[in-house]
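Ligand-bound model needed. 2-deoxy-2-amino glucitol-6-phosphate.
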Amino acid sequence: YEHGATGAHPRMYTEMLEQPASVERTLRGRLDERFGTAHLGGLGMDPRELRAVQRVKILGCGSAYYAGQMGAQLIEELARVPADAEAASEFRYRDAVIDPDTLYVAVSQSGETVDTLLAVEEIRRKGGRVVGLVNVVGSAIARACDGGIYLHAGPETAVASTKAVTTMFVGFALLALQLGRVRDLSVADGKRLVAGLLRLPGQIEQVLAGGDRLTGVAKTLAAAESMFFVGRVRGYPVAREGAQKLKEISYRHAEAYQMSELKHGPLALISPAVPTVALLPDDELADRNLAALHEIAARGGPLVVVTHEGVDLGELAAERIDVPRNEKELDPLLLTIPLQLLAYHAAVTLGHDVDRPRNLAKSVTVE
Ligand code: AGP
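Prediction:
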């Protein structure tokens, strides 16, 4: 790994490496292995109130918004409650209908992002209930919410968010578990997910340990002017987060797309000059995703495939990055880590100051 002028690693690098410990802290004291559930006392909601929730609406900006999309997927899958995420920066301007049966969730690392804060205030002004998923204790968003879950990721100072994103995912998994277990999620499924969550820190460690092997692939991406990040359903927000990270610190154009939508337009852009980073978890959509990747390869598009150990890519010409298997609902977290590493190494290759990307501030607190 490259060192800065002072010999120290960039903060982004250190924060990426802290993820096993951060995730462990997010989980600490909140899992109930006996009943396969989570206890989130900070929400201030009893089982009856949790059961009364008809919808979940998640609001955040940038990477927090993408983590929110991952969270919405988790909540729908585990709790079978309709859930979606929206950019708080859009929500606050569109005079949204505030529904008393919806649980609003504001997600933010800093707890100071003005768009998210003003969305929270508007919801509460109209009688809605908002809980926070926030890292910084006592921050403005944390104070403005009715209750919440602290991420306990530890201080994050690099502009490019890493450990906050993965701990947000874990926070949403805890919320989904608790919402699920007051509804129809079985104790067996609850226990399966609790065990999966407990495996995560070790598995993140494993992916990070292979980080050096990604420098070659990162160099290929750094050499391209433009690229795609593609995924389907659980993989799509991961692709958005991967593209965002790469844009922020390498200044390369990266566009995230749903794998299912490629044939409806962007396939026209595929060429040997435009690489695609694809998420291919070994889930119920793997065959369809593999077929879409063949479409890209057939047009000469270079492929980087982030997949699970043991997945057979057949004849597909691709650089392959394997992550360990966990429960499929938790796949987004482990798929996210190699994308952070790729963005980091691409930026370092290009000689950029990873911790001080141009035009960006750590938190956007003014309008
Ligand atoms: C992440 O890499 C970004 N720098 C940015 O999108 C960030 O996630 C966003 O501004 C939200 O910040 P917050 O989590 O502090 O609210």
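The pocket of 2-deoxy-2-amino glucitol-6-phosphate is lined by residues 61-64, 108-110, 113, 116, 159-161, 248, 363-364 (CB under 6 Å).
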